[in-house]
Design goal:
homodimer; 186 residues; alpha+beta; 24% helix; 34% strand
């Protein structure tokens, strides 16, 4: 069976050097120097970790067939050699969001906020992988962990994509968001 | 925070007497005499358990605003004194189902299989609570656990509802299903 659970460990070890942790809304995360993405949920770590976040690569909840075709045609995978920059962006959405029905969430997500179309504009330079946290347990600190990889020359385009997302109607339902930037050792 | 994770423990204890465990498709579950529904994930049980299944009461994935209005108007809660019969029906869906996009799953679920409308015909006599398992971990044996409660005189209507569901297009994507019937001690 393919591994679906992934954990992000922040501490003194890991291939990614943390360059910035910005808290946009809600409670911040403690500072740390390095970040590792590992498969599964580590029972214990040989090194002290500042924090661990975990999520599951699950089925898509909003994308329709036509959009999946566009995404599959455009997106590239993680681990491209030129992608020496990455970002981990954990977000939590409000109780009001989760009380909406599927058709209402979809309407805000795409018809009003153009989440998929905004993302498509920036593929393939930005590779993206979503992890769902909400149903792993009832104590998860975030609902989603999104991991992005890109080459250094696309950082300003990546920032523009985030600014466009954050100005959308959908982001009115985000009550915690941290933006963690990392670079890979040469 | 409201408890969202629930566990079903089958063994020698619990308020529900198991009267039948029928395996409709896929691997069966071991026999057991009693069933208990508890909040959370028990770390250990003082009594030997035959099996434990757990799921999370999560946001709805298919119901639209109009349907939620119909459901909210019709359905009654769990724990009604007259509901001395109950059923736990764990199901797993195929990989092909999870590869469908949201609009395709919704079309099979409701426009073709009338899952919500079939359920509505039998509310309020049958109370229903869905638990999602799929994103709790990557080792869960089922995708969904549905718990139904009803008075003994509605058992044949309940069986008709299940027969209608199981004859639907949606059930072509079910590759494991167990039907566990229980009665409450007087």
């Amino acid at each position: 069976m393919a591994t679906r659970v992934f954990s992000f460990l922040a501490g003194h070890r890991g291939p990614w050097q943390i360059t910035q942790i910005s808290c946009l809304v809600g409670e911040p995360l403690p500072p740390a120097g390095r970040l590792a993405m590992v498969t599964g949920t580590p029972d214990s770590s040989p090194d002290p970790v500042a924090w661990t976040l975990r999520g599951i690569r699950s089925n898509e909840r909003y994308v329709n067939r036509q959009e999946r075709g566009q995404l599959t045609g455009a997106q590239q995978g993680l681990g491209r050699p030129a992608s020496s920059c990455a970002a981990l962006i954990p977000i939590r959405k409000t109780a009001a969001w989760w009380m909406l029905t599927q058709d209402e969430r979809r309407a805000i997500f795409e018809e009003q906020s153009h989440h998929i179309q905004v993302g498509l504009k920036h593929l393939p330079p930005v590779a993206r992988q979503l992890h769902h946290c909400r149903d792993l347990s009832e104590q998860e600190p975030f609902d989603f962990l999104t991991w992005f990889e890109y080459a250094p020359e696309y950082e300003s385009a990546f920032d523009e994509m985030l600014a466009e997302m954050r100005a959308s109607e959908e982001w009115a339902y985000v009550d915690r968001e941290i933006d963690i930037r990392v670079v890979r050792d040469p």
